[in-house]
Amino acid sequence: MARASQGADPELGVLRQAGQVFRYHRRCIPSGVRLKVDVAGETASLRALLYSAMQDREIAQQEAEQLLKELERVRRAAGAGASSSRAAEGSHSDLEDRLAVAVRRAEGAQTELAERERELRTATDRTSQLQRQVDTATGERDQLRIRAEAAELLVAETTRELAKLRVQGSSVDQMEMARLRTEVMVQQIRIDEIRGLVTTLGQ
Questions:
Q1: Which domain, by its residues, includes 107?
Q2: 198 falls within a domain
Q3: Where along the chain is composition biased (Basic and acidic residues) (predicted)?
Q4: Furthest-apart CA pair in the chain: how many Å?
Q5: Fewer C-beta neighbours within 10 Å, C or N terminus of the chain?
Q6: Among residues 97, 104, 199, which one has the least CA distance to residue 148?
Q7: Could you list the pLDDT tens digit for every one of the 203 residues in the chain?
């Protein structure tokens, strides 16, 4: 078993850690900087690992099936040659024992690889979900920037209008000037709030 049996335990440990990468980031990284994680890169890496694990499991399954068929063939041959010499019986028994051990190992490796595949599939699904959340947050941030820019234009326009009214002197309607001042203040507060949200989403 070239891929499934050589160094199976170390590989399994590494890939289990990779399969928990989403949980690690959610647990260890402060919420304010979680969106800085390269979610797309991690998702691509996990998908590559998942594809490799699926191939390994398929190879292990094929090899286990081949060994099982060979074991059954040897057992049938041993049953058919019941009247053969004691030396031949010992040879068949030894071969049967070794094949039985190989089958158990192959089935154990197949079970471990199936577990690895499940873990990687779960981790991939979770990082994909996180990617969708990041995309949603990015879209909301862009919309907030547009709103902030619109509010800034309104403030600039209102400020210019207020300046013109001040130049006109006492003939200006004081209530209109008060309304414009209030409008400028309200829009400025809104701009500050939107900028704060943009900064938070950008982290």
A1: 8-202
A2: yes
A3: 112-124
A4: 127
A5: C
A6: 199
A7: 444 444 444 334 433 444 444 344 444 444 444 444 577 788 888 888 888 888 888 888 888 888 888 888 877 776 665 555 555 555 667 777 888 888 888 888 888 888 888 888 888 888 888 888 878 888 888 888 888 888 888 888 888 887 877 777 655 567 777 777 788 888 778 787 777 777 776 65
